[in-house]
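Reading a protein record of the kind used here takes little practice once its layout is understood. The fold follows as a row of integers, each naming the local backbone shape at the matching residue. With these conventions in mind, the following record can be read line by line:

_____
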Amino acid sequence: MSTIPFNVLRSRHSGTTLHLVVECPEHLVTSAAKAAVEVTIVDFLGRRAQVNHVTPLTGDGTAALTIGADLFPVDPEADPPSYLLTIGHYATWFALASPQSLAPSVAGSNPPPGTGAIDYLARDYVALTAMMRSRVSQIVEDDSAWALDHPADPMTTILEVLAYAGDHLSFRQDAAGTESYLTTARHRLSLRRHGRLRDYAVNDGCNARTALVFAVNGNGVLPAGLQVVTLQPGEPDVILPSDPALVASTTVFETMHAQSMAQQLNDLGPALVQSAAYTIPAGSITLTLAGGNPGLLPGQLIALRQLNAPAGTTSVFGAQVLRLLKITEVTTPNGVLTTVLSWHPEDALKSALIVPPVNAEGAVSLYGNVVLADHGETVSAPLQPSTVPAAIAYTPMVQVEDVVSAAPLPRVAAAFDGSQDLVAASLMVESAKASLTSDPRQAAPCISLSGLRPGMAGVTEDWNAQQDLLSASATERSFAAAIEDGSGSGPRQLNLRFGDGALGYAPAPDTVFTATARSSGGQSGRVRANSLLQIIGPAPLVTWVTNPLPASPFAAEDSEAIRLFANTGFRANLRGIEPDDWMRLGSADPLVTQVHASLGPGDQTPCTVGLITQATIPDGITFPVASARLMDHAVLGAPPTIVAGSDVELAIALIAYCAPGTNIAAARERLERRIGAGTLPDGSPAFFNPANWPLGRQVRLDELTRVLRADQAVSFVVSDPQNDPRIKFETVDGDDDSAANIARGYIAIEAHQRARAGNDNFRPALGRIRLFVVAGS
């Protein structure tokens, strides 16, 4: 049974007699009058009325039926019930007017044809189409003129277009509420704004970055923006034409800065060679070249590379890029001039480098012509619109797909000149490791604008992209560039937003902008080492180029990550106040391997922070650098006391009584291994393994005795020196006392100390854990 909104125009009842005038489609009127379809009237209780007659009513262009029926008697004081009128396969409910509200009908007061209830909850395409088809079927005069169920009918086309527009408007109405909340927002623009309100910067990813090594045939300057590409099939030359036909899979990198080139810096490997093979240890931050300085400058990058293992070895060093901090010429006592190169401690050699003698296998190359490069090809970027309007805000859209985002150039302090010591220089210059690892939170879309103001022919203004304009001054020519989701399955769009004169300079009306952007060309930017081998010319200086290191991009933050971290990102305190703050900030430093912080007695005592930093050769560089960085976070309250971590050697002796019949030799070996500094048979660390003892962990007696008692052969453990004078529980060189330590249950370890027990019989000063195993009786 289907419901059709035909109308009961008039209803009159007298006692049990009912008269109806019903408006309905003409074909239904004809069928009912000829008894081709059944007409029934049923009340709410299921009682069926006796239909006496069904007569067509014509006139005034109206198609209607008059229906007479006998109803069941009802209480005259009660209101009449509702009835279900069924004509053929269609049905509708109607109710009779109460006797108190009956009024004589007024001629001409009939509602217009097709007047019926409209379902305002119909909001999607399917529901809107069905509702409009039903509506049209009522109001058209000749139903046979419209084949509403046929897709080629023009009325069907009109209805579908209107339903599509209504569906779109309904979606926009719903989206207005959806995008108002971080948990429900779907558009990247909304998520970015919600995150910014929480002081959280949404990142759109960051392009890949690597270091390029060049060989040149003379001295000169290599410009920024030089394009280096992956190998082109069938093109053997290093230099390609200015506008080559690149294959679709080509990845384009561009140099990030200008760099002076010198032919003598092509490969300094021969200056490393000595008469015999030698090793530069892992962790080294210096090496020595034979002769004077060949032209290297403090702050520049150099690259070490070894492609083959030296004779008699199987280890290959590979490649590593280093940031030079200091270059010192030294004359040996024999009068030989040498040059000592020192680099950033974060760039300490990852593994030992074996330098073979001359003409031996496994030669080491040291490149001095090294330049940073990142992924993206500079292209012209049309704007829509390109002219600043006079009355509305200027928010153009960039007509270039796949615009990459890039982090700024590495930081170098203006005062750095190479005369500083390694500690001071390390705080002023970023390491090569940091320079090659971009922070996606600082990345901004790579686009620049040039504005030509009206009436100033030939005079242009440069505008630079930023993440936002919240910190821009009123005179700063900058704009905010944000990558937004495209419509449907379309590509992402780059929208620009300019200042208003208070936050950022407002462009003058009728200014015409031209733009350049860097496009990824549909490539991810992920390349392997030694895959960027050709240059898009001209570059007359260059004879060879490669990338000794691979490159990988940073993926853009997805919507779920934004929703997850934007709610908690503002809680990341960058100020050191509590011990937990100092431990978190210290752990974030790449030079710190362990950190522990604690408060001394009293509420006003500043924190004591113990640091263990990476070991380098020479030593003594990483701790002052890491402690100076950490002290930058001490902006409130008393500054902390930062202490270099140190080891505390233990002197412990306990008595273990075993059950009668125990194999004492086997039990001794098993127990000493369990509490030793090595590993257990299953590969897990033993109790006093250094991995179990970070900074600040107290040595508790109950933990140690619990480990011993866990052995099935041990009956009990004696740890009271009054019962056995051999018992010890103290440090080797400390002023503590075994009896006092046992009484309180632990050996006190400060925040900057690590408990150690080497258990070396030949070096007892490194700590010793002795265990006397006694057979029980």
